[in-house]
Amino acid sequence: MGVTAVAAGQKITAALLNSLPVSIPLVTGSVASSAAETVIGTFTIPANDPAAVAGSGFRFAVYGTADDTATPTLTLRLRFNTTGGTQIFSSIAALTCRATVTNMPWFYDGWIDFSSGGAGASCATQGQLNETLVSTTPANHANAHGPDTVDVTVQWSLVVTAQWSASSASNICRTLSGSLIRM
Fold first, then answer.
1. Chain-centre distance of CA 73, in angstroms?
2. Using 50, 70 and 90 to split pLDDT, how confident is the model at 1?
3. 20 has pLDDT over 90
4. What are the residues whose beta carbons fall under 8 Å from the beta carbon of 44, sequence distance 6 or more?
5. What are the structural domains of the chain?
6. Which of 75, 133, 149, 152 could form a disulfide with 163 if both were Cys (CB 3.0 to 4.6 A apart)?
7. Is 169 left (phi over 0), alpha (psi -120 to 50) or beta?
8. What is the rounded average pLDDT for all residues in the chain?
9. How far apart, in whole angstroms, are the C-alpha atoms of residue 183 and residue 57?
10. pTM for the full model?
11. Is 110:129 a contact under the CB 8 Å cutoff?
12. CA 153, CA 117: separation in Å to the nearest integer?
């Protein structure tokens, strides 16, 4: 993909339009009163997307907040397709949250880089989780993962999940916004 220069007077073709960056919005969600891993945000990528080939990929950003009671742990994950799908950024552990706080912000951003496409597309991921869940001082948890495989010949998803250590109506985690952009 990369950057495509468009010059004044240049003919606009389907190939040119398909090479331009495209943003896929995040479908937001939340979880409360549950200790089960739950999808709280979804990017849906169409089958055979032109960014899911060798030398191309996606950049993603997801913003959310959490509320809690007591000091539960919260595990935020990124996976392909479902809560049972391949987990990327697997070294980011459960975070013990500050006691009884609302609107604690967190932010995931990173890249999915493909080395091959097709039904067994191979990719590597890198990125970070920035959060104020544990402390009022922002913390950065960097991670790289891969290679992983995903079938990009069919519609697929990148999902954000949250899992609390304790079920409570006061333990709420939500996504507020996000975008996935072709690189």
1. 20
2. very low
3. no
4. 24, 27, 155, 156, 157
5. 22-182 (2.60.120)
6. 75
7. alpha
8. 92
9. 5
10. 0.88
11. no
12. 8
Query: For the chain, what is the radius of gyration of the CA atoms?
Result: 18
CA distance 156 to 75: 23
Give me the residue label for tokens 């869940």.
Answer: 133
- List the structure tokens of 62: 């997801």
**Residue count (the chain):** 183
Percent of the chain past pLDDT 90, that is, above it, reads: 81
CB atoms under 10 Å from CB of 17, counted, come to 11
Beta bridge partners of 140: 130
pLDDT digits (tens, 9 = 90+) for 81-139: 999 999 988 778 899 999 999 999 999 999 999 999 999 999 999 999 999 999 999 99
Closest of 171, 99, 93, 163 to residue 135, by C-alpha:
99
Which residue's structure tokens are 């097709």? 118
Long-range contacts of 1-6 (CB under 8 A, 24+ apart): 1/50, 1/51, 1/56, 1/57, 1/182, 1/183, 2/56, 2/183
